[in-house]
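Let us practice reading a record.
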Amino acid sequence: MEAPIIQQFPNSTLSNSSTHQHQHNNSFSISRDAVDFLKGLTSTRFMPSFYIIIILISLPLNALALVTFTCRIREKKPAVIYMSHLACVDLLFALLLPLKIHYQLNADWLFGEAACRVLTAAYYCYMYCSILLMMCMSVDRLLGVALPIASLTWRSTRKASCVCVLVWLLALAGTVPLLSMRQTFPIKNVGMTCHDALLQDPSGHRYKYLFFILSCLYFFVPLVITLLSYSIIIYVLSVKPAQMASLFKLRRAVIRFISVLTEFVVCFGPTNGILLYHCIRLATGKDSEGDSSYAAYLLAVCLGSSSVFLDPLLYYYGSSHYRQIIQSVLRRTKAEETTPAYETVLLK
């Protein structure tokens, strides 16, 4: 007798009766559609290839940003503090991606329960740290534009550092429950899964409340605050006299707003939207779309990782010092390319 079909999401759940089946057959069963997705080309080829691209692009860009913010920029303004922490978040996330790539390529988790819990918590910590830091950057920018004099005492380096510590603590606190739950299960016809199947028991309902709270507090509330902040920033800059400096600041503000909005909507919106949608369906007893929402969720997680591509754009338009350094590097590279190369002939 096979264990019940996994149909619940975000991590397809297993009923208590499957525990006895696991003790006898040493594996659980899931639906045919779920098996096909986990073993299909999308999961085992497209997604790991996308993660590899993320590593190749994000590591040098964010490493350069982190070195620039910490070593090259002497005047540590609040925006620099926030962006340095954001670059650190991206780097730490990228360094853990090889585990995810190996798992997706082989459709089998080989690194143990502890590593799976850390990887699972790390993704959510990365996502919510990024969201909260972008919110802090938008509020800081709002204060600098709307209240440039009055906000000088609030926008200090020390206070920005304290805010960053608070952001890390909040993100870690939101992911602690994931570290306390079992994440790996052997699945028939698949292998060992990581964060893809969970036992369906009374404690499993914690996920429903956990992800509902996380989606509201760590995504939708920061989204509203960020949208309001940039809307006010653009309005304040647009009503100023039409000078070159004001127009340049307005252009930078619009580009930053588009970048941040893209990250929220394209990168983090699908993951949190699907989580919230599924939590509502679970609360109302409607969970028949488990397999389809499960596949959509995994693709949304993959898409959410692409925010590391957009963060360097925020650095470029958020820090004049960083922009000057990047421009000097590009000019130096262009000069080296246009300089004729001469071969040295060694006479014997």
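A brief commentary: DSSP finds eleven helices and four strands in the chain.
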